[in-house]
Specification:
This protein is α+β, with helices and mostly antiparallel strands. It is built from six helices and 23 strands.
Length: 397
């Protein structure tokens, strides 16, 4: 693995205003809410990303060995780089669950942020942990945030609530680290827990490459010389295989019902230029595409692969559906024939209708094409009581 590229994507998840973005800031020094509407409303709307390098000081002991700087903040000794990770900061507001699920498709581990000054679980805390179980993320660390706002006795009560809640979805062995993102308390202990409990997954670089697009950009400034325009940028994370400079790639389902073909002109991981990119971290691909195709995230949800190597797009799905039972109100939302549902497929959101049922499998027709593979998991949301809520997950058959 190139040390210029992050090795793993770690989600930063949890209820709205529990401190996810502040914790990313404490770890990376980067504030991921940069969209004007996010700053105005004080919540995350789009997924935010930040790469951070973890270092270890050989002169210190225990969690005090861990930091995010090349020199130890305690003894000023030179530290050793142990791993570079990429944090995906997901929104916590209930109306933005589909965006969070898009991010979950890119996570190999997660930090679940739970505010110690509120009862656990809050509604989105539960839904985010549910979303992780849908996408198969097993390795998590819990950050019990805002401990500076409560007493020791209250922190212990909240800790017990968290441990009981984690049992519900099979995460009872996950460590719970008390922290204060705003006061930089126990950040070293959180890094230690991440290093010990969220390992880098094995990589098979021989597989056909597959990348989910979560953002797309036009980097040209208004009024740029037409002869000096740069092609569109595609941002996302590689799920399998590797992509190299000069590769001919296919972007599917594409535009107006047709896949789009282009060539990789550049590969970047944050500010680092790469010769090749592998799974882990968030990658920006420079292309020869007309930048009008990529501006304002127009390519979000697309899948990238080598030319001719991706599955064909489809609007017809055969699903094994697993309803989800709410912890809060104990209700289980049933998916039935003729229901309208929102499906999160990788990083693509699609509206569909359940058109039939054969034995235990449901048939769905979508309004837009998606790329799927057998046994892939997708999330289904259904409208109930005037709001959309996560209702089930489906397995592609």
């Amino acid at each position: 693995m190139d040390k210029l590229q992050a090795e793993i994507n770690i989600g930063m998840i949890g209820h709205v205003d529990h401190g996810k973005t502040s914790l990313v800031k404490a770890l990376s020094g980067k504030w991921t809410d940069t969209h004007s509407e996010e700053i105005k409303r004080g919540i995350s709307i789009r997924l935010g990303y930040a790469d951070v390098s973890f270092y270890k000081c050989k002169k210190e002991k225990g969690s005090e060995q861990y930091c995010t700087t090349e020199k130890c903040p305690l003894c000023n000794a030179k530290t050793e780089l142990i791993r570079k990770v990429s944090f995906v900061d997901a929104p916590g507001h209930e109306t933005l669950m589909a965006t969070m699920l898009s991010g979950a498709a890119l996570m190999q581990g997660a930090v679940l942020v739970i505010a110690a000054n509120e009862k656990c679980p809050q509604p989105r805390t539960e839904e985010h942990l549910m979303a992780l179980s849908i996408t198969g993320v097993k390795k998590i660390v819990v950050a019990q945030n805002k401990i500076d706002l409560i007493s020791l006795e209250k922190a212990k009560e909240n800790y017990k609530e968290i441990k009981e809640f984690l049992k519900t979805y099979g995460y009872e062995d996950s460590p719970v680290i008390p922290v204060s993102a705003n006061k930089n308390i126990n950040i070293d202990a959180l890094i230690e827990a991440i290093e010990e409990h969220i390992p880098t997954p094995p990589i098979d670089s021989k597989k056909n490459p597959k990348m989910h697009v979560v953002r797309s950009f036009d980097i040209n400034k208004p009024g740029s010389d037409p002869l000096k325009l740069k092609g569109g940028i595609l941002g996302g994370s590689i799920e399998s295989g590797e992509l190299k400079l000069g590769d001919e790639i296919e972007i599917s389902p594409g535009v107006s019902g047709k896949p789009v073909y282009t060539k990789i002109e550049s590969l970047n991981s944050e500010t680092n230029q790469l010769e090749k990119a592998m799974p882990g971290g968030l990658i920006a691909i420079g292309t020869k595409l007309d930048p009008s195709l990529t501006r304002n995230d127009r390519m979000k949800g697309q899948v990238i692969g080598l030319k001719g190597k991706l599955p064909k797009p489809t609007t017809q799905l055969l699903l094994e559906i697993h309803p989800l039972k709410r912890l809060i109100n104990k209700k289980e939302t049933q998916i039935k024939v003729n229901d309208t549902v929102i499906l999160t497929v990788g990083t693509m959101t699609a509206i569909g209708t359940i058109t039939g049922k054969k034995k235990e499998l449901f048939e769905a027709i979508l309004k837009n094409e998606v790329i799927v593979e057998p046994e892939q998991r997708i999330a289904l949301s259904k409208r109930e009581e005037n709001m959309w809520g996560l209702a089930a997950y489906g397995v592609i058959k």
